[in-house]
Amino acid sequence: MKDWIWTRERKAAPARETLSREQIVAAAMTILDTEGIAGLSMRKLGTKLAAGATSLYWYVDTKDDLIDLLIDEVWGEIDVPEPELAGWRAGALLFGHSLRSAVLRHPWLPEVMYTRPSIGPNAMSMGSRGLVLFGAAGFSEHEIDLALGSVMSYVLGTVSAEVATREMVRKSGRSQESWVSDILEQAKVVAGDYPEMQKSVRRRTSMDLDSGLTENFVFGLDALLDGLESRVKK
Amino acid sequence: MKDWIWTRERKAAPARETLSREQIVAAAMTILDTEGIAGLSMRKLGTKLAAGATSLYWYVDTKDDLIDLLIDEVWGEIDVPEPELAGWRAGALLFGHSLRSAVLRHPWLPEVMYTRPSIGPNAMSMGSRGLVLFGAAGFSEHEIDLALGSVMSYVLGTVSAEVATREMVRKSGRSQESWVSDILEQAKVVAGDYPEMQKSVRRRTSMDLDSGLTENFVFGLDALLDGLESRVKK
DNA sequence: TGACGATCTCGTACGGTGTGCGAGTCCTTT
DNA sequence: AAAGGACTCGCACACCGTACGAGATCGTCA
């Protein structure tokens, strides 16, 4: 059995000024947030910490392990309200928004999240609090798992798509408007024969990207919560 | 403006027996489906086609462009029923299942899907047919976009998570049961203090992975469609 | 004080990656 | 026969993750 990063601790206090896992994680996080996954290499991270690239391997077995730590760091930013505060429905809404904004702050997450299990301490804490929240809604035990999973999947799916378009704008290095109109022009060429698509595209261009994405998110989340609410056993 | 792959065509009939974009895409697809994204390199793909790696660059500008083609290929496998056949609700359910099973057939998709815009011809066709289907439900024009987007995000989010666990089992090279129990044992160590998590974990282990994942998918999709249905303007 | 072992750093090297470039080969058209 | 387009591909470059082992620095104990 592999020994996981989560259960490996520093043996004793460092003898002298050294690197630390926290330091490495923090530096890697700022690289990821500003340059994306493709911008993170061990050599670059080493340089940023004024250290040799391979020094990092004392604190982390592989780059993938480092990314596991970074992902769990994000889960740690999400807050899941206690059900006593405002009840399940409002709590779930808040949870959804918190999850969304965390991913928007760390847009590299969707690209890596689906390639590894999330079993770090923060993921566990978040999951546990989510179960408590959804448990208060009156679902059966089994439905608690299903409902929480649905909401998380919806939120992560929506925000992944959202982040994808935001990131593509950013990477293009151009203004939102100019990028959108470029893509849409292209889409028009390819989709000339699809009038519904053209109409939808025209609808979208007529509104602000930011507020459109937010509205999209809220609309679906509300609908999903409606559907879940009606499943609570009376 | 970048010239997109979608609008670049072969000028004339090939002079002699040559490679072709279709051939390359097909070979790359089987590599992706069997070995995943990490298994696809231009050199390996070249070898598979009995060609030099750099020969491929005649047909495709970059590896990313090739992946764009592959993604659009997947969108081409999804069928979106006409609303006349069974109405919106049944059609949306069918669409969801079709989307899910396509991703299950091509488990590499979530890892790359969120890094680029889907504006290929098949994506356009799928989107257009989706709009037609949801248009028949009685939504306002604006709500059509929102509702379709929500369903797609939910389905892709759910199936991405699903594929992630399935792939991790596969890559571990061990039996489903042994992998699951390993992960759960680890989770237990990390999450000792979270009784709700432990209970949830125990619930999950007591059931078949396959049917559990399917039930999860259907439960949330049904709830979402319920919520959407109640939003149709009367 | 001196020696030992643990902790930590890092230069070098290996085998991989995507792909730019330019030379070379084939086939059609004039 | 000559020209020119269509296509193939070997070489080279810069970059990647990381295994390995030599070295540096420390606390501890004889």
Q: How would you portray this structure in words?
A:
The structure is a homodimer of 234-residue chains. Chain A is an all-alpha fold and 234 residues long. Chain A has two domains: 17-74, Homeodomain-like (Arc Repressor Mutant, subunit A); 80-229, Orthogonal Bundle (Tetracycline Repressor, domain 2). The first copy, chain A, has ten helices and no strands. Chain A has helices at residues 21-35, 42-48, 63-75, 83-105, 109-113, 121-135, 141-172, 176-190, 195-205, 209-229. In chain A, helix 3 (63-75) packs parallel to helix 6, helix 4 (83-105) runs antiparallel to helix 6 and helix 4 runs parallel beside helix 7. Chain A is flat. Residues 11-15 of chain A have low confidence and may be disordered. At the A-B interface, helix 5, helix 6, helix 7, helix 8 and helix 9 of A face helix 5, helix 6, helix 7, helix 8 and helix 9 of B. Chain A binds a DNA duplex (30 and 30 nucleotides) through helix 2.
Write the layout of secondary structure elements.
The structure is a homodimer of 234-residue chains.
Chain A: H1 21-35, H2 42-48, H3 63-75, H4 83-105, H5 109-113, H6 121-135, H7 141-172, H8 176-190, H9 195-205, H10 209-229
Helix pairs in contact in A: 3-6, 4-6, 4-7, 4-10, 6-7, 7-10
Chain A binds a DNA duplex (30 and 30 nucleotides) through residues 11-12, 14-16, 18-19, 41-43, 46, 51-55, 57-59, 62-63.
